[in-house]
Amino acid sequence: MPYKYVRIAGNRRQVGAALGKLARPLMATYLDQSATWKALRPWRGHPYLDELGEQARTALPALWDELEGLAEGLDMPLADVLLWNCRGDLLHSSGSGDGCTSVALKAADGTRWIGHNEDGDPYLYGRCHLVDVALEDAPGYLSFYYPGSLPGHTFGANRAGLVQTINNLRTRQRPAGVPRMLLARAVLDCATLDEAVALLRDTPRAGGFHHTLGSAADARIFSVEATPGTASAQEIGTRYGHANHMVHQASRGQSQIITDSSRDRQRRIEGIVDTWSPATTGADLLAALHDTEGDLPILRTDAADPDGENTLATAIFEIGDGEVTLRVYDRKAKAEIVLDVMNDPE
């Protein structure tokens, strides 16, 4: 498998420290080869970074505890860990280096399906984790984990049955607000869809993400473009696809960067989902996310990808009433791990 499954438990700071220790052996080498880290270093000590930290501490104090624990576990200065976790708020042309494509479907039998390609730095293929986190004061969650980044900005689901997948948006604004990765992490502490949408709508945002949200306690699925300029939440009818730029009517007019890959993947995924019927299943979502048609396909394996991103893993969430099943696939061998999200393992 291109990732390892790890269980973590404790209070906020303990969980953060455990995540940091998990990444510590790789972190220095990872950052040394990262063009994103090179581009971030001039922001060290910048007043805007201090402002982002203050916004995070004020709005999300529990997650600030996690970030402090993460720095402790990584044995890195907190300021550098904050800088790394604000990369998408600071670097608009490259964003966080995390591309991604998401799809969603409401089946005729009431099952909700959400699928996601996690696209990121090709160096990370085989070097990430799937973390199963138990918290003392929140539902706990499963999430794909990038070294040194708070979980939540990839794909994940919590023990309350809330499902989230994230796509990078390359917005051009830099207002004061909560860093987008911390806000995505905060969603995994929410118990309901309405709570998650309200959090994204009401919290000041420094950067932009697209969130696909579903729940085992709610028949709805939401597509949310949460940006510095607006938080547009649209309920998905029966089928949906989203890449890495704003497409909602309420937000598409904002200044953004649309890469050729994002434009091509958006066009292709919309064409595929338009063919889906009420009989469509998770296998069809997986086939869509592993589609290789075109020069800039949905499944990204080209070492010369123009955005510098490759597909690291594919997630398929099957959401029923009171249950969520997560299946995670490798892009090559198509190996599968199956997890019952809402039942905490012994």
TrEMBL record:
The organism's taxonomic lineage, starting at the top: Bacteria, Pseudomonadati, Pseudomonadota, Betaproteobacteria, Burkholderiales
Superkingdom: Bacteria
Protein name, per record: Peptidase C45 hydrolase domain-containing protein
Transmembrane segments: none
Domain Peptidase C45 hydrolase: 109-330
Family matches, as InterPro entries: C45_proenzyme-like (IPR047794), Peptidase_C45 (IPR047801), Peptidase_C45_hydrolase (IPR005079)
Any Pfam family hit: AAT
